[in-house]
Q: What sequence folds into this?
């Protein structure tokens, strides 16, 4: 997570952390928390590239030049250009809206790398549902090792801090650091949520779903 262009972007790293490297299954079986996380991770990438900032709870584009990555460019295209309108969208509202169309392309990218296997099945042979799992190329274990290394370094790198905050915001820190032995690590990640405006927006949406009975969950 340090030095040069990252091999994987934050939405990919976060999605990989959402899968159990042993069972191969996604940690969250329902709800949209991972989709909120992907939207937040895309925002962080735009922020790190100097293209967006948050002011007064609203997003503002500071550099209208589209990113080279097509998926990040798609995310940025949904933001108003500088000088157009009285103000940008509220960060929390943008994360909620963008979550509906950003996660699938990032999942597809990982599937193209054979890191994930995306399957559509039918319940009782009628109702379609998705069952995603780790693919033949295990990038999940590598993602967890990078994350553990970043934790041992105190999440000193801005990308590592943002990833830890997002992981806590979507509620997977308990899977990454379970039990009493992981309590200190989970608490450290939770503190990072409060310091990162993109992660806070993700967490607010997860908590809104949880309070509405939508299967979200709190920061882990």
A:
């Amino acid at each position: 997570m340090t030095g040069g262009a990252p091999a994987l972007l934050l939405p990919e790293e976060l999605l990989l952390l959402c899968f159990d490297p042993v069972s191969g299954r996604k940690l969250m079986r329902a709800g949209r928390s991972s989709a909120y996380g992907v939207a937040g991770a895309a925002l962080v990438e735009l922020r790190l590239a100097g293209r967006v900032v948050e002011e007064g709870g609203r997003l503002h584009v500071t550099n209208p030049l589209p990113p080279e990555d097509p998926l990040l460019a798609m995310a940025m295209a949904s933001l108003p250009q500088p000088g157009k309108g009285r103000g940008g969208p509220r960060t929390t509202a943008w994360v909620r809206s963008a979550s509906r169309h950003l996660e699938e392309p990032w999942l597809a990218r990982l599937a193209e790398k054979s890191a994930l296997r995306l399957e559509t099945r039918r319940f009782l042979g009628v109702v379609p549902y998705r069952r995603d799992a780790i693919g033949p190329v295990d990038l999940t274990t590598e993602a967890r090792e990078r994350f553990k290394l970043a934790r041992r370094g105190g999440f000193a790198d801005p990308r590592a801090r943002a990833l830890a905050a997002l992981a806590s915001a979507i509620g997977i820190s308990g899977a990454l650091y379970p039990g009493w032995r992981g309590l200190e690590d989970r608490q450290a990640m939770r503190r990072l949520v409060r310091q990162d405006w993109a992660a806070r927006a993700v967490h607010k949406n997860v908590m809104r779903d949880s309070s509405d009975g939508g299967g979200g969950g709190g920061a882990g």
